[in-house]
Design goal:
The chain is built from three helices and 28 strands. The protein folds into two domains: 6-38 and 62-87 and 211-413, no CATH class; 94-201, 2-Layer Sandwich (Alpha-Beta Plaits). The protein has helices at 78-86, 137-150, 342-349; strands at residues 10-15, 28-29, 34-35, 38-44, 59-72, 90-101, 111-114, 117-122, 130-132, 159-162, 169-177, 186-188, 192-193, 202-208, 217-223, 228-244, 251-258, 260-264, 285-289, 292-293, 297-305, 309-310, 323-324, 329-337, 353-362, 365-375, 390-397, 407-413. The strands form three sheets. The chain has a 22-stranded antiparallel sheet that branches. Helix content is 7%, strand content 43%. It starts with 9 loop residues before the first strand and ends in an 8-residue tail after the last strand. Strand 16 (228-244) and strand 17 (251-258) form a beta hairpin.
């Protein structure tokens, strides 16, 4: 007798062209770690009296189809869930970039190495690959910008150099769009580099909150040993949540609401398509404020929800007519070791901040969730024994007028975007 095991289960997904109708063609085979999507139909006690104390048979209630799916944070497959959550992304090919940050004016003999070519800072008259040290660090960086942009070294002139206004950074942007620039190397003897190479070159898919309508999907949960294949149609993505920790596998929890479920004896997903899969670890994630990592951070969560409203019209099949988005919400928490009062001061003053939740797998594979206007409550730092004191901030986000939305999600990978359309 065959028994079902999770190790053999499958999860197939494809976007619908009409709500609640299974699409034709091959589905995507989705990676997942758990799934409780399915239909439930409860029972209602029969209120009829007059036939004794023993109850009459119960009545069947309406059908509800929903559930949570836990998926790995993957830079390609995650785009399918994000499209369901936010709607169509804007897709463009972008250039790799990076920076070298100077805390102080370089000293004589300090170097920066640009794509394998070393440039030396000198206090006297420069020659060859040398950069003259000026009176201030900003003036020295401006001199470096001039020298590097004028360089005829083939490995150096593949990029454009600048100093963003008011910063002590040498910004480097590769001249070619796409992943090519991700191999362009950076190093410095007495300054900080953004990464060993330029990053961010590839295809960028940008999602924004606030879409008026959302796409629907068909999702099949397959148990081939039985065999039983449960096809859920009219699936709309309600929410997604990320949990940032120090260690472990990075996952996201997706909540969905469907219109109906039908069981079949064979798969309805055709020959499943697969994308290249990359696993993400928690150590590849970080949380930033103002573009910089938050210090003394021990954990964080962020959840975006569409707050879907079921359209529960009267039907003879017990199904809903749809699930429409209402007022969206982005909530979460960050937990920090109590080392200074910076965040508490911001919370006390009611000053909104920006928060970025980032996973970076490689220079051309990343996920960035940016909440543009976040409000922090003022917490009390609890003292529980002799150990370190931690404080949690349960935040809420709001629409930022300058950004035009509450949250922006940037997914960088090597897909052209047709997979999400």
């Amino acid at each position: 007798m065959a028994r079902a095991y999770g190790s053999s289960a499958s999860l197939l997904l494809k976007r619908e062209t009409a709500y609640g109708q299974k699409p034709a063609g091959n589905f995507y085979k989705m990676p997942f770690t758990s799934c409780n999507l399915g239909s439930e139909q409860g029972l209602i006690d029969d209120p009829v009296l007059g036939f004794g104390r023993d109850p009459a048979q119960p009545l069947r209630d309406v059908i509800n189809v929903d559930g949570d799916i836990t998926v790995p944070v993957d830079p390609r497959y995650l785009g399918l869930w994000l499209t369901g959550l936010f709607g169509e992304p804007e897709t463009e090919t972008v250039k790799a970039e990076g920076y070298i940050a100077f805390a102080a004016n370089p000293s004589n003999g300090d170097t920066i190495t640009i794509n394998g070519t070393a440039f030396t800072f000198v206090s006297g008259m420069p020659a060859g690959n040398q950069i003259e040290i000026k009176s201030t660090v900003m003036q020295t960086i401006d001199e470096a910008v001039s020298v590097l942009n004028a360089s005829v070294v083939g490995t150096v002139d593949d990029a454009t150099y600048s100093r963003p206004t008011g910063t002590q950074r040498l910004k480097i942007v590769h001249d070619t769009t796409g992943a090519t620039g991700n191999a362009f190397t950076l190093a410095a003897s007495a300054a900080g580099v953004s990464a060993p190479t330029l990053c961010g070159g590839g295809i960028l898919h940008m999602f924004e909150s606030g879409a008026e309508s959302l796409p629907s999907y068909s999702i099949e949960v397959g148990l081939p040993q039985i065999p039983a294949f449960f096809l859920n149609t009219g699936v709309v993505v309600n929410s997604i949540g990320f949990d940032f920790q120090r260690s472990g596998a990075a996952t996201a929890t997706v909540n969905v609401i469907a219109q109906g479920e039908t069981r079949f004896g064979a798969t309805q997903g055709g020959t499943p398509q697969q994308l290249t899969f990359n696993r993400t670890s928690q150590f590849q994630g970080e949380i930033r404020h103002g573009g910089e990592k938050i210090g003394n951070l021990t954990g964080g969560t962020v959840t975006y929800t569409n707050n879907l409203e079921r359209i529960e019209t009267i039907r003879d099949d017990g199904k809903i007519d749809g699930a429409d988005p209402t007022i969206a919400a982005l909530t979460g928490s960050i937990t920090v070791r109590f080392a200074d009062t910076t965040l508490i001061d911001l919370a006390s003053n009611g000053t909104p901040i920006d928060l970025e939740f980032v996973y970076t797998l490689a220079p051309g594979l990343s996920l960035t969730v940016t909440a543009h206007e976040v409000y922090l409550p003022k917490p009390k730092p609890p003292i529980n024994g002799a150990g370190g004191i931690e404080t949690s901030f349960d935040f809420q986000a709001a629409k930022n007028e300058a950004a035009g939305c509450m949250v922006t999600v940037k997914l960088l990978n090597d897909l052209d975007g047709t997979q999400y359309a």
